[in-house]
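Researcher: I'm preparing a figure for a lab meeting and need a structural model of a single chain. I don't have an experimental structure, so a prediction will have to do for now. The sequence is pasted below. Please return the structure as tokens so I can convert it later.
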Amino acid sequence: MKFKWINILLVLLFLLLVYLILTRIFGHSATDLIINITLFTFLGGLIYFLNNNIMHYIIKLNREFGEFNIKTTNGFDNIKKDMVKLNKKFDGFKTNTFNAFEKTREDIEKIKIGTEKIRVDMKEIKNKIKKK
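Model: Understood. Here is the structure written out token by token.
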């Protein structure tokens, strides 16, 4: 296993920090200044370690998220195409519906023409009944 110098330094700083805190708790000579210096040095080394070793995971995640954005954009393009198709179908449906209403009007006119003799006969019968 390959060890980097920053990993070894971080482990040593952490152990030193724990030792200094324990000596401070038990009343020995570690001062707050020494503990703070060790703490900030450890945290700075930890930030450097995280930046170098974990940054490639973040970059990979960003790349995958970018691919997700591209796929999402393509998905919305597909939705746009589907909406255009639906609008065309709906326009066709409106045309078919309009044609159906026209046919219905024509059928009603045919029925009126076909029943005109019956209406005339009904009016004559009503007039005869009123006269009696």
